Amino acid sequence: MSAVLKDAPRLVRMQDGDLSEVMAIERAIYTHPWTRGNFGDSLRAGYQCWAWRLGSELVGYFVLLVAAGEAHLLNLSVAAARQRAGHGSELLKEAMQLARSRGAQRIFLEVRPSNLAAKALYGRFGFREISVRPGYYPAHEGREDALVLTSAL
Ligand SMILES: CC(C)(COP(=O)(O)OP(=O)(O)OC[C@H]1O[C@@H](n2cnc3c(N)ncnc32)[C@H](O)[C@@H]1OP(=O)(O)O)[C@@H](O)C(=O)NCCC(=O)NCCS
Hints:
- The protein has helices at residues 19-29, 36-44, 87-101, 116-124, and strands at 10-13, 48-54, 57-67, 70-78, 106-111, 128-138, 143-152.
- By secondary structure, the chain is of the alpha+beta class.
- The model has no long low-confidence stretch (mean pLDDT 95).
- Coenzyme A is lined by residues 2, 29, 76-78, 83-89, 111, 115-118, 120-121, 124.
């Protein structure tokens, strides 16, 4: 599925103190990043916010909402310099396992049709497209649709 990780990061709960590092990654890898407020709100709302750390280095993170037997993956990100080394796959595995352990039977997420890397990753994990949300995302010019993907857990 992906390169075997040479280094083994640890999954640790994201905290307010992580947000400067999170935002540095976020701004570097998204054309329309989440704001610091989006992460702060997610932390305060008790969403599953997890950081993927290799020693002191923040390699990636995810934000997951689990409720009523369903999970929504709201954010999954790997630092630019660490991409394509299996971290996204490991993080997705961790997020799906966490969702399952919290009683979710299905997981949902949105992805831009133009995000080929993410679509390839999710496809490898058995996600399939179930609907389109028209004009869901801001884009350079106007808006971009979101594909809604889902997988059983
Ligand atoms: C999507 C993302 C999380 C993938 O993380 P990653 O650590 O690079 O993923 P992996 O190394 O585990 O890759 C797993 C598979 O995904 C696919 N993939 C990953 N990056 C890809 C790319 N740039 N182009 C095409 N396929 C890609 C490949 O099938 C890959 O397997 P392979 O390397 O054996 O070919 C990462 O690219 C990222 O953070 N992107 C920016 C943020 C983002 O778009 N998040 C998802 C929002 S829905």
